[in-house]
Amino acid sequence: MLYLLPEIYQMKRNIRSPRKDLDRLRLNLLQKQILNIFENVPFYREVFNKLKIAPKDFKTMNDLRELPIIMKEDIRNNGKKFLNEKMNLEKCFHSFTSGSTGQPFMSFFDKRCWMRKKYLSKLRARFACGMRPGERVAIFESEPAEKLEILNRHHFLRNLFLKVTYFSLFDDMEAMLKRLIAFKPQNAYGPQSYFFHLARKIKKTNQSLPFLKRIYTSSEYGQSHVTQFIRNILHVEVYDIYGSTEFKEVAWECEHHQGYHINEDDVLCEILNGNTPANPGEIGDIVLTDLRNLAMPLIRYRIQDRGRMLAESCLCGRTFSRMLPVVGRASEYIRLPDGEKISPFHFTTSIEKFKGLLQYQLIQKSETDILIKVILDENTGNETCMNIKKTIKNITRGRMQIHVRKTDKILPEENGKFKVVKNMIQKKHSP
Fold it and tell me: For the segment 118-145, what is each residue's pLDDT rounded down to a tens digit?
């Protein structure tokens, strides 16, 4: 661990570095990564030879656009060509995607990169948001309780900077609450939907968690009204995090909650419309480039999420650029009977304004039917359901049958994560 101390010190400085120094660092990291992929990664070496370019040609950040955008299917189809041929994979760390897009695969990380992405970048962001060394953290994972108990007993970093205990998303909530109250964490980390149901349980049973100060949500598209409900009931601050299995933590909210600070000393983020850079504030496809991973470097990887860059500086004074992920994975677009596709963003921004709506899920059941499951505040009547139905009918221009169903609980997926929008007919069509 001692070899990481200089890196920890520099990482802390980076988030407030002058922009010119940060840009110089990013270009230096990019040029080193370009040399790495040319010398060690067969897929990119073939690309360089085909395009008749060399690492020395990359003199500015814009030169990155010379390289093609890659997709998940490129990695699956080319197998080992994306791996560093000079690196022993048995000494690397790996993560397996949940396969939410139907295309799961394994990502590999060299040891130094893994330590940085898995622990140091996260600690930097959490400490920036108020967490302090020695505090207790409850982490909620989509793993069986038996596996997490082993982790709780043997994880070598568990009590190094923080006192960490893992909880399973699949545990009975009554039993979990007893363990949580006994542990008394100041911080909790997990999916927004889980904390939503925890807050409802606390409200229903008139309990309280006075020790809990901060909640960090990840893995799901955050619904603003759900976040506010959690804040109001649990009396905590809520920070959302954007990341992926392939890149780990990409961006995070600070105390001002005005977009997500990108970990620019780890990853480059482009927002594209097709192959063209989107204008600041314009929604497009998120394309990421890893600056640190030497084992399986992904360059210009279209992650199948949507978002937009924010041009103005953050009030917190941190110099990392900011972006805002939006709901809108390509496979989740709603498809009208005539083939027209509508982004989920149009539905979610229209639905979330209605009074008393606590949580919802929009499901395209067939070519002509949309079901909206809603959880409403106990004091909310049928007017909200009628307004939601009318709004969705207007967005789909009357071409779909809209069904609104009140429920007491919306179940997560098998992996423990919650999907705001589900397209049940996506397998019948290409996005």
Answer: 999 999 999 999 999 999 999 998 888 8
Walking along the chain (431 residues) 10 residues at a time, the average pLDDT comes out as 76 94 97 98 97 97 96 87 94 74 73 93 94 94 86 73 90 92 96 91 94 92 85 96 93 96 97 92 94 97 92 94 77 80 76 85 91 90 91 90 92 75 65 39
SS3 197: helix
Domains and CATH numbers, the chain: 2-115+253-326 (3.40.50.12780), 130-242 (3.40.50.980), 332-428 (3.30.300.30)
The per-residue b/e assignment along 345-369, b for 16 or more CB within 10 angstroms, e otherwise, is bebbeebeebebbbbbbbbbeeeee
Alpha helices (runs of H) in 4-136, residue ranges in sequence order: 5-14, 19-40, 42-51, 72-78, 111-115, 121-128
* Count of C-beta atoms within a 10 Å radius of residue 257: 13
Alpha-carbon gap, residue 34 to 57, rounded angstroms: 10
Q: Mapping DSSP to helix (H, G, I), strand (E, B) and coil, where does residue 133 land?
A: coil
Q: How far apart are CA 102 and CA 105, in angstroms?
A: 10
Q: What angle do CA 9, 114, 61 make, to 5 degrees?
A: 70
Q: H-helix or E-strand containing 193?
A: helix 192-205
With beta carbons less than 8 A apart as the criterion, state whether 357 and 381 touch: no
Question: 397 — alpha (psi -120 to 50), left (phi > 0) or beta?
Answer: left
Residue 379: what pLDDT?
83
For residue 263, which of 293, 227, 223, 284 has the smallest C-alpha distance?
293
Question: What tokens appear for 178 in the block?
Answer: 């007893």
> How distant, in Å, are the alpha carbons of 3, 81, 212, 295, 329 from that of 112?
10, 22, 32, 10, 31
Q: Are 104 and 96 in contact (CB under 8 A)?
A: yes
